[in-house]
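Q: Hi! First time asking for a complex rather than a single chain. Here are the components, and I think there are two in total. Is that enough to go on?
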Amino acid sequence: MSCSNFDWNAYALGEMDAGARREAETHASACAACREELAATRLTLDALSVLHEVEPPRRIAFVSDKVFEPRWWTRVAETFLKPSFAGALVIALAILVHAFARPAVDQKQVEAIVARAVADTQDRYESQLKAVIADYEDIQKQNRLMYIQNTGLIRQ
Amino acid sequence: MIFREVEDRDLIAKAKRGEVEAYNLLVSRWERRVYSYLFRLVRHREDAMDLSQDVFLKAYQNLPKLDDPARFAAWLFRIAHNEAFSLLRRRRPETDLSEPGHVDRGPAMLPIELSLAVEGALHRLSEDQREAVLLKVYQGFKFEEMADVLGCPVSTVKSRLYTALDLLKATLAPALLPQEMRRGES
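A: Yes, that's all I need. Here is the structure of the assembled complex.
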């Protein structure tokens, strides 16, 4: 295999699978130019490794910190978008609309309905009273007859 | 690394359920890596700090959209990449990034000459090339993950990275060769 088939950057950066690595190593053991190229890449990567991570000058603000708190309009918007709040709002609006939009009451109509109800109740009461009186009179009549019959028997 | 991934997955699940402390812990774990990446990319401490803050805020807001917690690192760096390049695009007309005078160096590191040479060499790369090196060499992403972070094909990722490595080899050769020669002599 020729030298151009080997990606020494990928090899040095750990991006080759085990099979390809073995092939590359076999080739490098017999090819001075490829060994030199690989050495130069490794040297550069080693040099880059002298730079370490940089410490932030101060810590990143946490979610619980003030900086992450939502602004007042966000909080208001979130409150209005909550299902429970929205549901309560719809019900309240419906009650309000109904209170203002229901038809006006006709006073004469109400008086007529009340008068009819009173008259019905009175009629019902009177007929029930008449029935009770009639029943009472029947019982009295029967009692009188029984008395007369009994008195006659005693005399005999 | 495997344990860390497992724990991150657990923290992500908890944070998605609204456990704020779980997300705070994720921030503490990733803030150094994200800040380092942003600092080396934008080369300004305060800008890197502000960007880091924005990255973690956006990540928190968009966490429910993260379907696969195993891809959290690439997803987080994708947000960081977008934030950094948004700033670089805004900044470009006023600032010539290639000027050495604008370099905001990190804390001094030993061996100091080599550190300065590496920082200088990195800053001479284009933003795209430098970012490829940062993601591969300093953050350890695979080519496929880098493609996700950068939103481009793997072939583009390799092209940027290999060009950057060639340039770094050429730039750092004077700083590296004497060391090698000294090693050979001893």
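A: Residues 106-156 of chain A form one domain. Let me know if you'd like any chain examined more closely.
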